[in-house]
Amino acid sequence: MRINVYISSTGYCSRREADRLIQAGKVTVDLLPATVGMEVEPSNIVRINGEVIGIRPTTVYIAFNKPVGIISTTDQKIPNNIIDFIDYPERIFPIGRLDKDTSGLILLTNDGLIVNEILRSENNHDKEYVIELDKPYDDQFIHAMEKGVEIYNPVQHLKVITKPSTIEKVTDISFKLIITQGLNLQIRRMCQTFGYHVNRLKRIRIMNIELGELKTGEWRYLSITEIDNLLKRIHNR
Asked: In order of start, what are the domains of the chain with their CATH numbers?
């Protein structure tokens, strides 16, 4: 098994973060420095910062209703980070992120193997949001949003056209939006393209997991049925 997959399977962190730790010289295998891409066996002793890892913890899947102002980061040096807010007794990390000014559903887990499968845009996993704008919109706005919008992606430093989406009207200034991407500030940038400012943005569903009646600032464990359906959707895409 590749070492980044091995580290991720223990719930310590994602595969990408494992590679960063390896490159930083913080990982050893049988007390020797690890290298990116190396293979490990069950008999090998893997340490991160001198701490032995390898016993897979009980897998945890959590749904959290993130309040506005909480930051989706595991860096506990940053004020108002999601890890300190939840204060879970074991190591967990968010699957993806919601920006600071966005509220709603975010999943957290210690299962590093599912993170990339959920986040990859090409897997077309749907996420649903409720958006409230600063002024009324019209049918032309709906059609343009659903077709795909050219926005600037600061991560790639280029303009991209968003994938087609689905909109359900709620009021003259609010609507539900289903997308299959997670570009940086994507929804806000899409609306801004047409001259609208997003006053409120809340995620209410990720694939088969719904926010439901979960109160702001509270979390719950996913049910066995939710976990089973989630894993089936990931592996049978």
From this structure: 3-53 (3.10.290.10), 61-120+208-235 (3.30.70.580), 126-206 (3.30.70.1560)
| Active-site residue list | 99
Distance CA 150, CA 157 (A): 13
pTM of the model: 0.76
How far is Cα 145 from Cα 166, in angstroms, rounded to an integer? 8
The widest CA-to-CA distance across the chain, in whole angstroms, is 64
d(CA 20, CA 193): 36
Beta bridge partners of 176: 130, 168
Could you read off the pLDDT of 147-184 as tens digits, one per residue? Answer: 999 998 777 778 999 999 999 999 999 999 999 988 88
3-state SS, residue 199: strand
Gyration radius (Cα) of the chain, Å: 20
